[in-house]
Write a structure and sequence with these properties.
seven-stranded mixed β-sheet, alpha/beta, globular, 200 residues, 12 strands, Rossmann fold
């Protein structure tokens, strides 16, 4: 059973649709007791960093996420869900993220040639093997929608993408996995990534 963490994130319905298409049982909940019973967690997200952390804190989900992941429960962060796993974001100065992984979220630079937000298909470079991206070919295209990007410690980065800067597009450390792109909107490549997570 997959537990989707419900804090009114913008892409919850698309994540639900992807899991339904794969006949994967899931529960959508903000109840810590319900999420504790799930085998794995998905932290979705589209929206503002500060607003998202405010909602997580108000629902006691911040402590729940830290507790469950600290006890080894696998978690997949998607888009804003990836960003929230880190320490801070330029989008919301002074707001502390979950801090489960070390790194910071920076604003994509605007040089007049690239549109912000970054919205569309970009290819992945994969510097090392990983469980999350098993079977995904170098150069595979995935779908992004974001104005801020991750700069993390290199040891957790399993995929990068270029959009004016090098975007840390996916990370993996122990039981923590995350994608800046949307696997649930990335066709067969994205579904394979979700299957990899679900089958762990």
């Amino acid at each position: 059973m997959i537990g989707i963490i419900d804090y009114d994130a913008g892409n919850i319905r698309s994540v639900e649709h992807a899991l339904k298409s794969m006949d994967v049982p899931y529960v959508l909940s903000s109840d810590p007791e319900v999420l504790k019973k799930a085998d794995k967690l998905i932290l979705p997200g589209v929206g503002a960093y500060g607003d998202a952390m405010e909602k997580l804190n108000a629902s006691n989900l911040t402590d729940t996420i830290k507790e469950l992941t600290g006890n080894g429960k696998p978690l997949l962060g998607i888009c804003l869900g990836l960003q929230l796993l880190f320490e801070s974001s330029e989008e919301s100065p002074g707001v502390e993220g979950l801090g489960i992984l070390k790194g910071h979220i920076l604003k994509l630079p605007s040089d007049g040639n690239l549109k912000i937000p970054h919205m569309g298909w970009n290819s992945l470079s994969m510097p090392k093997e990983s469980r999350l991206l098993k079977g995904i070919k170098e150069g595979s295209y995935v779908y992004f929608v974001h104005s801020y990007y991750l700069k993390a410690d290199e040891d957790v980065v399993i995929a990068t993408s270029d959009y004016g800067v090098t975007i840390h597009a996916a990370v993996e450390k122990d039981n923590i996995f995350a994608c800046q792109f949307h696997p649930e909107k990335s066709s067969d490549t994205g579904l394979q990534i979700l299957k990899n997570f679900i089958s762990m």
